[in-house]
Structure formats: structure tokens, C-alpha cells
Design brief:
By secondary structure, the chain is α+β, with helices and mostly antiparallel strands. It has five helices and three strands; from the N terminus they run H-E-E-H-H-E-H-H.
Length: 141
Amino acid sequence: MKRERMGRIDHELQRELAMLISTELKDPRLGFVTVTRVEISSDLQVAKVYVSIIGDRHVAKQSMMALESARGFLRGAIGSAVVLRHTPELVFVEDRSTEKAIALSRVLAESRAAATPAAEATAPAAAAEPAVTPEATDDSH
């Protein structure tokens, strides 16, 4: 199947699932869930739904359990909203790339903060040395 059509189907499933999860699911276990991307198989039978969950590991585990229990409902709703010959089976995968990006950003900020005082410590020392000018070294007067 053409890559462009697959991309359109992925995008449409992502948009529809994000809307359904945010508005239709009322499970108290469900935390703040964002559908980051959807990848449908070439035979259109299975759709991997990557979700990012804000919160600690317990919240993420509870949210994944809520999504698993709502899988049938979501598949049925997708079947009515998106016109495909077969409604794909949904497989939820936790996407931790946002979490990793935040951790990397924190490490970079800490390394910048640690490097800045060292750079500032060497700069005043260089400025404290008196500048030698040719007039000061000239003893011929």
C-alpha cells in the first residue's frame, strides 16, 4: 500500500483515538494520556497506538490498564468513525520519549549550571591581572 495513504490512515486514527480517549472514556484509573502516534500494519489488521502518560509509574500503569479494558469500546468507536474495510485491532504501547526528553533537558541544564561558575571563576582572575602597556615598561624617560 502506498506510504501516503498509510500516513493518512495513521493520522486519522491518531486524531480519532485522541478525541475518544479525552472525551468518551470516564475510567477513574485514566490519567493524563496523549496519543503521540499510531502505526498501522501494512495489512491494516493491527494498529499500534503510542501513548504518553503524564505522572509517575503507578499512574502510567493504571492508565495502561484503563486503556486495555477500554480497547473493545475504542475499536468499535473507531469502526464507526473511520471508514476502513476492517477495523484494526488496537495495541497500546507506552511512549516514554517525552519522559526521556525531559530527563535529558534536566541533565543539560545541570551541566550548563555547573560549567557556568567555572567559566566565571576564571574570567575575573584574568581581569584582575594588571594590563601591561608599552608606557609602563618603558624606562627610557
